[in-house]
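Pipeline run #58 for the internal structure catalog. This entry was flagged by the ingest filter as a single-chain record with no existing model, so it goes straight to prediction. Upstream metadata was stripped on purpose; only the residue string is passed forward. Reviewer on rotation: M.T. Logging verbosity set to normal.
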Amino acid sequence: MTAPAERRPAGSASARPVPADAPADAPADAPADVRADASDGTGKADGAAAGRLGAGVWTALVVVYVVWGSTYLAIRIAVETMPSFLSAAARFLTAGLLLAGFVAVRHGRAGLRVDLPQLGSAALVGLLLLTGGNGLVVLGETSVPSGLAALLVAAVPLWMVLLTAAGGERPRRAELAGVLLGLVGLAVLSAPAIGGSIAPTGVVAIICATLTWASGSFASKRIRMPGNVFASSAYQMLAGGLGNLLIGLARGEQHGLRPGDVSTRSWLALAFLVVFGSLVAFTAYAWLLRAAPLTLVATYAYVNPVVAVLLGWLVLAEPLTGPTLLGGAVVVAGVCLVVSVSRGSGRPSARKAVRESVRESARG
């Protein structure tokens, strides 16, 4: 479990708390265990830490690999008999309340205490990530296979590079090459929609979701968020859940909705998303940020799509088409290039961009 982050003095350059799990650019006054894991840009610290990994790290990593990779399958099953935005609302409102209860039990009311700017920041990020991001993925999966959805979502780190560049940070050539490679992969993945075999609206919705998710990740490191990572996530889930609820009601998804018409497997899929996707995997991930090198944790970005494609093929008999396999391989290659270059860069902002992209995916 990660402890609440310590707040900087009021006169410091930034009012935002320093994350207790910051691995690459930890300040000199950070706890000793954080400084020991901080990389100097050469990857030496990460490499040394890799030699000390125990069974707990690998168990948690497998949980993140498999559970987050399987959430796309669970979403696809849930929307078989559930309305898209209302199912997302049920997921995040339930998970947010459970997580808030956990924080209250563990840290008392003080663990949930935030000021108005922090609450507003958490709500904004939650709306971007879980309403605009996850909500659109759920909508897209009503017509797009789960494996293809996961491969499209894998492009998030690519958008993060472009957003970082728009923020004034000049990307390295290899990062731009990774982005271009990923865009080629997205074009190949989108070919079935252009050809009419898959609904174009579903593909467009998921691509828009990746842009919204990347924007939320980008914003989260530039605005003042709650110091306790679990409390922050709880507020984000509640805000995102409310956003999904309002959109679902505005779309009229409640009309004709009868709980008795929802299949047992859709209920089970929703329960899986709440308990495992939003709580268990997030807890494992938050712990990994403290116990394992970021270079290892970041591999989820290109393992999850592979898991999703395989599960979609095994469970739902989703076809492994040429465009899916080729485009997916190209996207994953582009993401690998971006992650490998960013994690080895000596620039703190490059490492922060990748770390925040990785961290914020925990909410999904």
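catalog note: The chain is about 70% helix and 0% strand.
catalog note: The chain has a mean pLDDT of 79.
status: ready for reviewer M.T.
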